[in-house]
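Subject: Interface between my chains keeps coming out wrong

I've been trying for a while to get a sensible model of this assembly. When I model each chain on its own everything looks fine, but I need the whole thing in one frame so I can look at the contacts. Pasting all components below, labels as-is. Any help appreciated, I'm running out of ideas.
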Amino acid sequence: MKKIFALLALAILPLSAMAHGPSPQKVDKSVVIKAEPAKVWAMVKDFGNIHKWHPAVASTKLEKKGDDTFRTLTLKSGGTIHEKLRSADDEAMKLRYEIVEGVLPVSDYNAFMTVKAGPGAGETTVQWVGRFYRVYKLNPPIPEGQDDATALNAVNGVFDAGLDGLKKTLEAK
Amino acid sequence: MNSKIFIASCFIALLALSRPGLANDYAYITNQGSHDVSVIDLGSNQVIATIAVGKGPVGVAVSPQIQRVFVSNVESQSISVIDSQSNVVLDEIPLTGSPVAVTVSPDGKILYVADWYLDSVIAISTQDFKQQRKVSIGKAPAGLAISPDGKTLYVSNRDSDDIGVIDTASMTVTARIPVGAHPFGISISPDGKHLYAVNVYEDSVSVIELTSGETHKIEVGTRPYCATISPDNKTAYVTNTQDDSVSVIDVESRKVIATIETGGFPEGIDFDKVSHRVYVASWSEDAVSVIDASTHKVVDSIKTGQQSRAFGRFILNAQD
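Reply #2:
Try treating it as a single job with all components included. I did that and got this:
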């Protein structure tokens, strides 16, 4: 009887607003590039030159503030994204950065890129993982364009286009 | 009496005292992305079962007393109730808000749920889920910890930057203790003397002396999330989600004595007193990192489900 009651209550739930605080969203993408790892890492870690391989970025401005490194991306579609370099580890070939502010419909965004040899000889795998929340951090109703789906779509688009561009740029050389 | 028969009957008595079907120790890891729970046998460090639960499971609480595991499903607004002997979901408790942390009273009689939509804490009878009591608390209550005597419940109010103190008998708020910015995971020492509150936006942990109310802050890594304390009360461990590491804190000197690299975005953390190992859920690697508490080295990595979080006390020991 308790189970039936629980099932009945659950059946009614979809009618009410989906109420929950935001959950962290994840985008995890990889690409295999026919190039040596050292060459791939040199391009990935070059924080001030992402426009050389990301097709959506028109230009990059690198800035140092004390010990911290920042870059401002100007997008081809207009708008900018201001990012902070968290670390660039040559040994692990891992770059970490975060968005300070910008036009992407996300909040608390941080990401890393890793470069690893393989799977085949002369091949390199680049992984790009982002963790972020939607823009609207309070409970429903969620304004249009500030929900989880919008945030996920945007980051998926950035990663897909970027990894594709990175592969094309490196393999063309 | 024949000594051999005496020894044999002692042995049988001992066997009868141990609980049936609970010969081992297990970790219950919630996987927010695959909507399930990975059950790890801590003897072999192997996943022995994967249990489908509600949508977006995050919080977890184990109760050896009633052999139950409670899991909060953030997206389906419910609690899944798992029988830890059979690893079968027995029930799903529907809630009107959105549950995050869950914890169980030491006697197993009451389940506490932090609801960050309704800004309240709900007490649910584990014998009859319809028997519920509720208390309003600060903004976005996130983490929960209960005193060893079960009389006091602590809740981190993420958006009020304080800890709510609840008297469990009356279900009333008796105090609010200010901590750092955006407190999330909280943990109480086994002796009940200290409460650790992790300040996510401040890269620190607040230590509250529960007898005097005195608080201290200790700097840890970037965007820390959860804490656990060793059974001897001497060492605390804090996950740093954006440094992929765990800070090891000496409780007496309040100093970070080691920083251990773990799997990416470490979140939930718990201490297994049997193996003397610390288990850490890695959100970005879909895995659990295993740390040897004596050497501060990662000794194993166990593949779990997607986006493992394990927010709460997730280790169930057979001898508890």
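Reply #3:
Confirming on my end. Chain B has one domain: 21-316.
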